[in-house]
């Protein structure tokens, strides 16, 4: 939530800051702002409510000069989306400016103390206290003014200030008196530093850096970066200097930009799925051993063989992937699996025996609840592994090991390709657990063969796009949708409903198809479509019976069915035919038309598909 950028070097800072904020806009989009420091050491602070374009328009009218600057795009937590509450926030007599991601839990008591010290607040945010607190800490060092403060004084003031904060922060700070210095600090909210030639970049994730530098440093919690155009020094808040690793960023600019082919990131990412699935599987399937291989689990097969229970924890779409994982791991490996909402698990105290392993499933690797659940399980001594898309993210860093999804950057707020990659990785994980336990060589090979065909099947499923669009236009005015499926297709029903509600604002609910009789059927009328996910499989006839029950009550039915299924064509109002795959792979294929359905309905209703209201891409607050 919220995005941060910073620049120091020889370029016009505003250009990088604006471009960076555009790339981060998916993280928050209710207001934005930048501050630059010009050659006369004057701050130029420009803010605008709404999208980055509004900020760009302001900067067009009144350009902000300077070769050093910071910027922020906001997802409001404390205080409404107004200009006053937009970042950057100034501290003291405009001596410093800061941008902040995260939540300062004790801001109210700090604010009260600072008011007593004479500081005047201009915003309702928790972030502004950080700006004034740094000034207050500097004054307490008996420094007359910022002008006489040394660089070490400023660093000490920042360290003392952040030591007083409770909560999370990613902070970037500029000082009017020191136009050659930028400080960055993190605790629980990601920050990366891009290393260029005589220039440095800072951002809350790597996407703004793409095209500027591929050399990046991931800051860890409690670290402070002291940044000039030519130098980067990283220190631990309490333990002093740290030797930092420079890593190579493996993202190219096509991955984070929209070309003419796609109007929205969501559509681009839906159509990227054949490739993202290939990337998820690349180098991870061994036909010779009939199993999957993962480089980063950091646990031996012997250790994993001792596992007698698996907990999958996640939020939102990633939790739905976990539900598919439950079916897969139980079926392939006969291991008991529980899928827990991370927000519940973190505060529960379930009895968990020694041989239980936790997998956190997360696209961003920054979701606050998932991180907290992982920390809690780790604290109790359990092995924690992460299935994560964003390399170097906090959850990936803190887990004992894990598996990257390799889906590439996912910019659309509604998760699509990360979901299918999560399910694909969980299928390989289930295969792996199966093969170190009871699964035969032949069964392993059959699963691998079927998995390898999945990208092509997804490509075929994408060809339903025109048919789905027609269905979308027919039902776009409905206010309620039901999504129904059984077994492997039950999580797909949940995920299809979530996709629709998050981007079109239509009320949609997913249920196991048979549960519908226990209440939801009361909602059925001629204006409430039921979307049945019913490719052929063990429970096909049962789902067909559920479909008839809906039809008997006058409810319109949209069926997602296997190619060649003519029986359903006679009953359902609309049928989308998808390629036939093994039942355990249906979740990856049957979600494709549901992603497209949500997309086209949202488009038809004039919704902002990539930036749905109230949402943000990574939910870094509780
Ligand atoms: C997905 O479309 C949603 N935007 C949301 O449910 C998301 O999946 C959830 O917030 C979890 O995010 P994560 O995978 O980054 O942890």
What does this 3D model show about the protein?
This protein has 622 residues and is α/β, with parallel strands linked by helices. It contains 20 helices and 27 strands. The strands form five sheets. It has an eight-stranded antiparallel β-sheet with strand order 3-2-4-1-10-9-11-15, with helices on one face. It has a seven-stranded antiparallel β-sheet with strand order 5-6-7-8-12-13-14. It has a five-stranded parallel β-sheet with strand order 19-18-20-21-22, sandwiched between helices. Helix 12 links the parallel strand 20 (356-362) and strand 21. Helix 14 packs antiparallel against helix 15. The radius of gyration is 26 Å and the shape is globular. The N and C termini lie close together (11 Å). 2-deoxy-2-amino glucitol-6-phosphate (AGP) is lined by residues 315-318, 362-364, 367, 370, 413-415, 502, 618-619.
Q: What compounds sit in this structure?
A: 2-deoxy-2-amino glucitol-6-phosphate
Task: Assess the beta-strand content as a share of residues.
Answer: 15-25%
Q: Helicity, in percent?
A: 25-40%
Largest sheet: 8 strands, antiparallel
Dominant shape: globular
Gyration radius from CA atoms, angstroms: 26 Å
Q: With helices defined by DSSP (H or I, 4 residues minimum), what is the helix count?
A: 20
Low-confidence stretches: none
Give the secondary structure arrangement, pairings included.
Layout: E1 3-8, H1 13-24, E2 31-37, E3 43-49, H2 52-61, E4 68-74, E5 89-91, E6 96-101, H3 107-116, H4 128-139, H5 151-163, E7 169-175, E8 178-187, E9 192-195, E10 200-203, E11 215-218, E12 223-227, E13 232-236, E14 240-242, E15 247-248, H6 253-256, H7 265-271, H8 273-281, E16 285-286, E17 291-292, H9 301-305, E18 309-314, H10 316-333, E19 337-341, H11 342-345, E20 356-362, H12 368-379, E21 383-388, H13 394-398, E22 401-404, H14 417-435, H15 441-462, H16 465-475, E23 480-485, H17 490-504, E24 507-512, E25 530-533, H18 540-552, E26 557-562, H19 567-571, E27 574-578, H20 586-604
Parallel strand pairs: 18-19, 18-20, 20-21, 21-22, 23-24, 23-25, 25-26, 26-27
Antiparallel strand pairs: 1-4, 1-10, 2-3, 2-4, 5-6, 6-7, 7-8, 8-12, 9-10, 9-11, 11-15, 12-13, 13-14, 16-17
Helix pairs in contact: 3-4, 4-5, 8-14, 8-15, 10-14, 10-17, 14-15, 15-20, 16-20, 17-20
The structure holds 2-deoxy-2-amino glucitol-6-phosphate.
